[in-house]
């Protein structure tokens, strides 16, 4: 008999990092990441009724993601996309390859506004949107969206986040508090990887702020890889670890 609990794969939250001890004044970057300012769930997640419960079928089989690039990307933007795909290949067992005739595949497009993706494999055609110029300001934005495609939600929404960050609800824009809801423990796992302030999947400290003040306050010392929440420079060590653990590389 099918056991739903057995197949729940909370690669959703899967999250990262390094040892952390007491905390002091942590640097705050007030510039906005474009994917955090969108109109979708949590800014950049497109919800789908096929994606309500993430199960084993929501992972891409055999670590392979067939894809097609559409839209009018510039040479520089295409170069960034290719660099990111190659970095996944170098650091993980994930393999993005040009689609032949696969039924399940990813379309990388720029036809819509914003930077957004579904979470995990939906089955059939699914899209990842990277609005030209806006979504290429930071190299890591493309990595961030592709990690959604692989099955990861945002770091600060994991079930144990209250041990690591305090949500300052009073500073959050009206109607945006839903973006800070925690995922339930029975559908989200850290795969044994600790919480990571430096994860490329973490929000900035001022995300969805209505007054310029922080909406997230770190309760532990930040890891040494990156000194700012919301960094979009590239993978943290634990981002790579998460992918490899989830896909059993």
From TrEMBL:
<protein>
    <recommendedName>
        <fullName>Metalloendopeptidase</fullName>
        <ecNumber>3.4.24.-</ecNumber>
    </recommendedName>
</protein>
<feature type="active site">
    <location>
        <position position="145"/>
    </location>
</feature>
<keyword id="KW-0378">Hydrolase</keyword>
<dbReference type="GO" id="GO:0004222">
    <property type="term" value="F:metalloendopeptidase activity"/>
</dbReference>
<feature type="signal peptide">
    <location>
        <begin position="1"/>
        <end position="22"/>
    </location>
</feature>
<keyword id="KW-0865">Zymogen</keyword>
<dbReference type="InterPro" id="IPR024079">
    <property type="entry name" value="MetalloPept_cat_dom_sf"/>
</dbReference>
<keyword id="KW-0645">Protease</keyword>
<dbReference type="GO" id="GO:0008270">
    <property type="term" value="F:zinc ion binding"/>
</dbReference>
<feature type="binding site">
    <location>
        <position position="154"/>
    </location>
    <ligand>
        <name>Zn(2+)</name>
    </ligand>
</feature>
<keyword id="KW-0862">Zinc</keyword>
<dbReference type="Pfam" id="PF01400">
    <property type="entry name" value="Astacin"/>
</dbReference>
<dbReference type="InterPro" id="IPR001506">
    <property type="entry name" value="Peptidase_M12A"/>
</dbReference>
<keyword id="KW-0325">Glycoprotein</keyword>
<keyword id="KW-0732">Signal</keyword>
<dbReference type="InterPro" id="IPR006026">
    <property type="entry name" value="Peptidase_Metallo"/>
</dbReference>
<dbReference type="GO" id="GO:0006508">
    <property type="term" value="P:proteolysis"/>
</dbReference>
<feature type="domain" description="Peptidase M12A">
    <location>
        <begin position="51"/>
        <end position="249"/>
    </location>
</feature>
<keyword id="KW-0479">Metal-binding</keyword>
<feature type="binding site">
    <location>
        <position position="148"/>
    </location>
    <ligand>
        <name>Zn(2+)</name>
    </ligand>
</feature>
<keyword id="KW-1015">Disulfide bond</keyword>
<keyword id="KW-0482">Metalloprotease</keyword>
<dbReference type="InterPro" id="IPR034035">
    <property type="entry name" value="Astacin-like_dom"/>
</dbReference>
<feature type="binding site">
    <location>
        <position position="144"/>
    </location>
    <ligand>
        <name>Zn(2+)</name>
    </ligand>
</feature>
